[in-house]
Amino acid sequence: MVHFIGPGKCYLDYGPVQMYITAFAHRKPLHEELKAVKNLVHDLLEDLSSCLDQAKLPAGKLDYEDNRPCILKAMLKAVKAAGDPSLTPMAAVAGAFSDAVAAYLLKKGATYLIVNNGGDIAYYHDQDQSLKIGLKPDLSKETCSHFLTLKNAGYGRGIATSGLGGRGFTMGIASSVTILGPDSATADACATLIANKTTVNDPAVIKVPAEIMEPQTDLIGKAVTVECANLKPERYLEAVESGIGRAKVLTGQGTIYGAIVFAGPYFSATPQALADAIEPQIEPETGPSSREGEQHCPNTMS
Fold this sequence. Notes:
Layout: E1 2-6, E2 9-14, E3 17-25, E4 28-29, H1 32-49, H2 52-55, H3 70-82, H4 93-107, E5 112-117, E6 120-124, E7 131-135, E8 146-150, E9 158-162, E10 176-181, H5 184-196, E11 206-209, H6 210-213, E12 223-227, H7 233-252, E13 258-263, E14 266-270, H8 272-277, E15 279-280, E16 294-296
Parallel strand pairs: 7-16
Antiparallel strand pairs: 1-2, 2-3, 3-4, 3-5, 5-6, 6-9, 7-8, 8-15, 9-10, 10-13, 11-12, 13-14
Helix pairs in contact: 1-4, 3-4, 3-5, 4-5, 5-7
């Protein structure tokens, strides 16, 4: 169902997809175009269901094939860009859906849009507009502790967040990893990868096989983190440094444009220009507000 929550703004609740979408064409709210998004999402879900077995295979076992649905190709391209062959295309599914909806709305004339699929965001705006992103230090809570205002300053069109306490599984202990990338699918895959890299070897970190938590998971045989209470601060610092280390490699390659990693009492960001742009959140907010400087707090589906 498509529920309009204001001019040019709607909430799409369709099966496993829950999206907040904002779309304007030269300050004119799009309406019929937003209503039609439901049909697009239906088709995407049908396409994905037809190749779900392939989408759950490690990317290293998959090659590009012309007869594959476009949504699977986009997911596979994103996880291959992340550079870890053990990731499955499902690591980019939420971001790929955001990108597909954004591409459709751009074709329909949108000049300002935000597609927020559970925190994996595709966006576009003109030079005189901006997007305010609330950063959650802990995905299990609603509070945003910092914010980042994005203008057309080289940060791409995609944002995604992963980590412990979110809607998906992680092998690390980071409570939040937010990635800025060229598109939402790439940011989604890289957020998953970097969050996984924040693992530490400590008896206080409790892990279980992913299939115990979710029998239909694409992470069969992988141990995922369920708890990391009572860790010493230096272990969290180790996790942050490990995650930022991988993020620096990906930014150096041009795969992503920036990363923010939170774990315990620590957080760090790369590159330095991004770190300098992060400001404390004086009055925390969670979700869409005004169109100009609209704020979203990323969550996770990966």
